[in-house]
Amino acid sequence: xxxxxxxxxxxxxxxxxxxxxxxxxxxxxxxxxxxxxxxxxxxxxxxxxxxxxxxxxxxxxxxxxxxxxxxxxxxxxxxxxxxxxxxxxxxxxxxxxxxxxxxxxxxxxxxxxxxxxxxxxxxxxxxxxxxxxxxxxxxx
Length: 140
Ligand code: 5GP
Ligand code: ZN
What we know:
Elements: H1 3-6, H2 9-14, E1 22-25, E2 29-33, E3 43-47, H3 59-80, E4 84-88, E5 104-109, H4 126-139
Antiparallel strand pairs: 1-2, 2-3, 3-5, 4-5
């Protein structure tokens, strides 16, 4: 087994080797409360098998994870009485990923919680926007 798997905190949580506040479990996925939540009910959904992030996760596993994200969303809203729900995946250190085992954040949001969304810019020239859209399309 690769070193990152034996040392991985989320692999250990999925196996029950490290305790967590479990919300859901099936053969392929595991969901538990984030230890440092943005708000109460902040939940992480992971595949039981180790993948570093979304980019190296097989589509069939990723689909299973996302189906659980959707399934948990309404119960989380109901229980926390959230006004909205943010869904997030950080892929890579530059994007804020700290734990290198794919995890999807389900984050209850409240009108008055004071958090902001990510920063945006309007400084990218129109022709650059068009060029990048075309380049991405061609990669598919
Ligand atoms: P990332 O920044 O990698 O997208 O998010 C990692 C998340 O995992 C953080 O929000 C952090 O609070 C959470 N986390 C890190 N270690 C543990 C742990 O041992 N148990 C639980 N429940 N959450 C953890
Ligand atoms: Zn892992």
